[in-house]
Design brief:
Length: 219
């Protein structure tokens, strides 16, 4: 059986409709228990910040947490490079999502800046219906493969038969853009009124693509 293998590419321009805040908490303590205690205190403060902005406790989600021994390098009196124990470093990554709303975003960032919680965070824009976007993207990739196969078959003087195989790596790629990263201790946004920062950020459309490889029988 003769075959023709074609890779189709699907592309979409998606208008984001949700804001996602990705936050990182970290610190180093001499004792393991102190590191856990500090992590708990910081995450509780962060949760109170969001609850004060109208979110529910379960809206703030931890996506990664670790506690590791940390070492630092130094030179001894003989000039030999060595390492010594510095402490236990915890790192906790959290996220929260809500419909795109610059006013609400301004209130959240203002509350974070005034909370005293030392956190680095990123603002991402995404879409609510990720599955629909992925399916639309895959549909475009299949259509592109069929169109290319038809062109190649006509140019080669052969006829296309049935599809014999489809190769696709089912992934769970995120659909988001990340226009800005901020530190809560160094915000440079102006507060138009007490309790909020004035944000007028319009996120660009998210450009995404995917591909699928299809094998056609040829006659």
């Amino acid at each position: 059986m003769r075959e023709m293998k074609v890779t189709g590419v699907g592309r979409l321009s998606v208008k984001p409709d949700r804001i996602r805040l990705m936050m990182n908490l970290s610190d180093t303590k001499k004792d393991y228990e102190k590191a856990l205690e500090a992590s708990s205190e910081m995450s509780e403060k962060l949760q109170k910040v969001f609850c004060g902005c109208g979110f529910e406790e379960e809206d703030l989600k931890t996506i990664r947490f670790s506690v590791d021994a940390e070492y630092e390098g130094y030179s001894d009196k003989n000039g030999n490079w060595k390492q010594r124990f510095k402490g236990y470093r915890f790192e906790q990554s959290l996220k929260i999502e809500f419909p795109s709303d610059n006013e609400r975003l301004g209130k959240v960032l203002y509350a974070l800046a005034k909370s005293g919680v030392k956190t680095e965070f990123r603002i991402q824009y995404t879409v609510a219906d990720l599955e629909k976007c992925r399916n639309d993207l895959l549909g475009k990739a299949v259509a592109d493969a069929k169109e290319k196969a038809a062109v190649l078959a006509a140019a080669s003087g052969v006829k296309l038969g049935d599809i014999s195989r489809i190769d696709y790596s089912f992934g769970n790629a995120d659909i988001c853009s990340e226009p800005v990263m901020l530190r809560s201790m160094a915000m440079d946004c102006s507060a138009k009124q007490e309790g909020t920062y004035g944000f007028n950020m319009v996120a660009d459309d998210i450009q995404v693509d995917d591909n699928v490889t299809i094998c056609f029988e040829i006659m």
